[in-house]
Structure formats: C-alpha cells, structure tokens
Design goal:
Number of helices: 11
Largest sheet: 12 strands, mixed
CATH topology: TIM Barrel
Radius of gyration: 19 Å
Number of domains: 1
CATH class: Alpha Beta
Strand order of the largest sheet: 7-8-9-6-5-4-3-2-1-10-11-12
Distance between the termini: 31 Å
CATH architecture: Alpha-Beta Barrel
Shape: globular
Number of strands: 12
Bound molecules: S-adenosylmethionine, iron/sulfur cluster
Helix content: 25-40%
Order of helices and strands: EHEHEHEHHEHEHHEEEEEEHHH
Length: 333
Amino acid sequence: MNNISTNTKYVDPFGRSIDYVRLSVTDRCDLRCFYCMPKGYKEFEEPEDWLTFDEIERVISAFASLGIKRVRITGGEPLVRKNLADLTTRLSKVSGVEDMSLSTNAVKLAKHAQALYDSGVQRLNVSLDCVDTDKFREITGGGKLEKVIAGLMAAKKAGFSPIKINMVLMRGINDDQVFNMIDFCSEHNFVLRLIETMPMGITGKEATLRYIPLDEIKAQIAERYEMLPAVQRGAGPARYMSIPEKNINIGFITPISQHFCDTCNRVRMGVNGTLYLCLGQEHQYPLRDILRGGVTDEELKQHLIKALALKPEKHEFKEKPDNIIRIMSATGG
Ligand code: SAM
Ligand code: SF4
C-alpha cells in the first residue's frame, strides 16, 4: 500500500468532500416495484457473501476515520435483513457517525419502528408511489398498501420526524396521484419528495420510457397552490419548496433533467461489500475478500482511499442510458 495520509478529509479527484455512505444490508426485497426489480429476479447474493454485522461495523469505522459522518441504511429492503436494529445500534456508536437514516418500503415497519428509533436511526425515508390500493398493488407486484400505512403510523408514534415519502414519477402510472399524495402527506405531516426515474438495469430502462421531467409536475402544482422556496434538513440533492396552504414541504429530485453530480457527497456499498462510486457508472471496488483476508485497519483505510480515487465525475444516464446493467436494489439505492 502506498503511504497516503489518512488524517485528511475524504476528498475525491474532483474536489468533492465525501461524507455520506449508503449501505445496502440486503439485495432482497418483499416487494417487486416494476421499475426496480425484474419479475422472477433471482440473482441474489448468497448469505455467505453478505458482509456480517462485524464486517460492516469495521468498514463504517474506517470510513468514519476518513471523515464520513452520515450513514443511510438501504437495500433491497433493509427490513428483510434479520436483527437490523442490532446493526443500527452498533453503527450509531461508531465514533464520527453523526447521522443515521433508513430507506424502507415500510411493509415491515410497524413491527420494527420503535426498536429502530431507539437504536439511533434518526431519519426515515419511505418509498410510496401512490395511496391508491389497486395502483399500489400493480406498481409493487402485489404489495398491500395498508401495511405501509400501518408502518408509517408506527414510525410517527415511535418519534421519527420528519418522515420523508419518496415518490418516483411515471407517466401514465402515477402522475395522476400527485395531488392525492400532497393531501396524504399534508394530513400526516410527512415531507413529499418527487423523484425522476433512472435507467438502472432493464427495469429502470423500461420505466424511463415513462420518464417525466419534474419541471412539468412542478408547473402543475404551481397552478393550484402558491409555492415558496424552502429549506429541509438532509444530506441529499433534493430542492425543496413549501406549500403554505397545505403546510407541507415538497422536494424535487432531478437526476436526469438537472443532474447534481458536481455536489455528489456519497459512495454506496452493496451487501457483498462492493463499493459503488457512482449510481450511474460501473466504477467499483470490492472489499469483501480484502476484509476476509486479514487486512489491518490502516490498510483498510488505504483501500478506501484508493476506491475513492475511482469516483467518476458524473453519471451519463442521459448520454448513455444503456450503460448500467445493475438494478437499483443491487446497488443500494
Ligand atoms: N426498499 C427500499 C425502498 O424502496 O425505499 C430501499 C431501496 S430502494 C432501491 C431505494 C429507492 O430507489 C426507492 O425510493 C425507489 O423508489 C428508488 N428506485 C428504484 N429504482 C429506481 C429507478 N429506476 N429510478 C428511480 N428511483 C428508483
Ligand atoms: Fe423493493 Fe425498494 Fe426496489 Fe421497491 S424500490 S422493489 S421496495 S428495493
């Protein structure tokens, strides 16, 4: 290993400070959102290849010593990984980790919300593309909306605040649901975040045929409600507006129409310990064999620094939509 100082901030070749890791704890899921996971998909990682909680804690500790402050637990569906709250308890104690959040479909959240909150998960994002039972079942390949709603209510009761709802917009699928979602989020005091579809894997490419630039949706909302620029806590690229009449904040996440690569602050780690340096590129750095090969803590840090040097300048979703064969759930979306 070359001798790079590890006391510096984790800065990539394009001068971006990286302080955020999105950690996939499983590539499996109890839903089959058609834009994310292909029907009948079976190419999951085998359990012996999943990083153990000890290994994950070790990697996050190494990241933290390099300046990573925020960790988001994701997947696949993170709540299908057994004993997740044990992991979040451990990660919340890692020195340097200041913010731990979770992305979930909320199907199993009713059971786990309190334990996760008590373990130190501070912020919660729930994927929900509509509040129409039949449409929800269609989009998610059989999901039951009432379970998600129960999960959301349990999360509120447990103390999560704010709770952000992530809605991927698709023409002809759920673009007629925006105002219902505004009403729902307003009623329950949730933040609504609208997201453009990304061409990840075969499913994402199909969904991108239904792509809607969010400016179009913003204009529709502005026709009905006054909107004002707003500030909302978070580590990501959403641009927020408030609707005072509904007492709600709406975030717009526009990876395609207005990409935000110049301020990208994150890396992702798959369940098998592969680091992905960009959602929209194949640059990666496998850590599992390194971890299982008896690496020292200092060597592990040097590996992370080498990995970061691979982080590309930007995604090319628009220019090269056929680039990415990984589906979102395999990356840690
Ligand atoms: N299962 C959890 C969930 O659904 O929140 C966490 C993982 S999921 C892969 C994370 C996010 O990726 C979800 O908000 C989902 O809507 C989004 N996503 C999946 N495929 C996508 C695509 N092709 N384009 C845009 N967003 C996508
Ligand atoms: Fe599962 Fe989340 Fe992908 Fe839907 S978006 S299939 S809930 S991983």
